[in-house]
Amino acid sequence: MKDIGFIQVGDLTLRADPARDSCFTVVRSDTELHEYEGTGEVARRELVHRHMSNEITSLDIAAQCVAEFPDAPWGLRMELARQCWDETRHVAALHRRLKEMGGRKGEFPISAFEWNITCALDNLVGRLATQNRTLEAGAMDVVGGLIRNVRAAGDNRTADLLDGILVDEIQHVRFGNQWIKRMAESDPRVLLKVAMAVRFLAHVNVTFQAAEGEVNPVGRVLEAVTERIPAVNVEDRRLAEFSDEEIHEILRQAGFRSLVPENEGSAP
Amino acid sequence: MPLTVAERGQTIATFRFIEVRLMEIAAAWVPTTPEMEVKVLLGKHIWDFAQHADALGKRTFELRLPEQFSQRPSDVYVQLLDGVAAIEDTARRLTALYDALLPGVERRYLRYIERTDTLLDAPSVVIVERILQDLVRQRREVGSLRGETGLMPANAEDLRRQDGSLDTVVVLRGEA
Which residue of B has its CA nearest to A57? Predict the structure, then answer.
């Protein structure tokens, strides 16, 4: 069976890129993406395109986990298979929105970096810790903020679409949390694998993160790493079964900035 | 003679093996297939195959076998599945899965309904009939995808002939 190999980047062994349509330009770092300042028309189109690409990558990762870990518990394989379907609907919905906005697939550079990192790990619990519990949970924070920004720019269709995606992501993070806990209860060595995966992710992030003041190809000046940490989506993280202690730690890292629920204060 | 209880259990368990394998083949193809629209189709069908396997796996427990029990089909059929899994070209992948393998799977499900006691084994029949509906939808969806992407069917005659030559893929064990 055709398999995707590994690449060496400095001292890091990463998974080689998954297959992409020839219309896409795949880049390796955030600084090469065309992330625009603000919420203008092109910026929102690039945002939708980037999220569509990220959802393709999430589909690739979940599918690869189904394929590469045939001995995983059946209940967990079912969750991953369901995640595949969710990600396909996200890709299709974002593609539909992109076309409505006058865009096309391949219009902007994309990255498959989450695949390169997650699928470099040789164990499923490490992948759940990296992709579901860390990267997708982080995406819940990012998307929660984006929904507000896009809505403030008057683009309710994109905001509603992102919210429809966000609600599915809660379950992807939640089952990651649930299965890590369950597996750690039956085998405490699982926690070591989780710790090693988190350390690997942190090392990759330090290696590839953009420096403060770097300018991307469309002229956006990138902020310091600490400034790029999004406000925490406390409400959805609770639903995804992060403990109060875990949420407190994430809030501390984000300078205690959290998202206020969109409907807070509105009539029932 | 209708199938015995043991034959029903082992056949359902064999169907489960096949659905799990189809799920794994579609899953392995997703990251190695370039076309976004094909990834989307395969991703959706991964979940279909998983649900089929899950429903069949619940039924095995009701037929004196462990829950989510899979029984390996004949070696020839496993080799056929492995051969399909190894295909790399997208159009050939779609043809092998949707125009050769799945029609064979469909034929075996229909034969199961013909051979079982549809009253006593109605819980199996209900599951199989639901799967059959999904298989029809999947083939309709791949037809739409071909129209959208221009990925035309490849020649699947060899595969269809190999699959068609297998009278049964179930290997009965023990007292069955």
Answer: B31
CA angle A23, A81, A247 (to 5 degrees): 95
What are the residue ranges in chain B where pLDDT is below 50?
Answer: none
Three-state DSSP class for A232?
A: strand
Q: For position A226, what pLDDT does the model report?
A: 80
Choosing among A23, A25, A88, which should be mutated to test the B contact, i.e. which has the most B CBs within 10 A?
Answer: A88
B150 touches chain A (CB under 8 A): no
Cα Rg of chain A (Å, integer): 18
CA distances, B128 to each of A232, B109, B176 (Å) = 46, 6, 21
Q: Which uninterrupted H or E stretch holds A77?
A: helix A74-100
Q: What does the block give as tokens for B22?
A: 């189809």
Q: Determine whether the interchain pair B27/A84 forms a contact, defined as Cβ–Cβ distance below 8 Å.
A: yes
Distance from CA of B126 to the nearest CA of A (A): 21
Say how far residue B75 (Cα) sits from the centre of its chain: 16
Averaged over A170-197, what is the pLDDT?
Answer: 96
Q: Is the Cβ pair A66, B34 closer than 8 Å? A: no
pLDDT computed for residue A265 by the predictor:
44
Binned at pLDDT 50, 70 and 90, residue A255 comes out as confident
B32 and chain A in contact, CB less than 8 A: yes
Q: pLDDT tens digits for B30-39?
A: 999 999 999 9
Contact A64 B33 (CB under 8 A): no
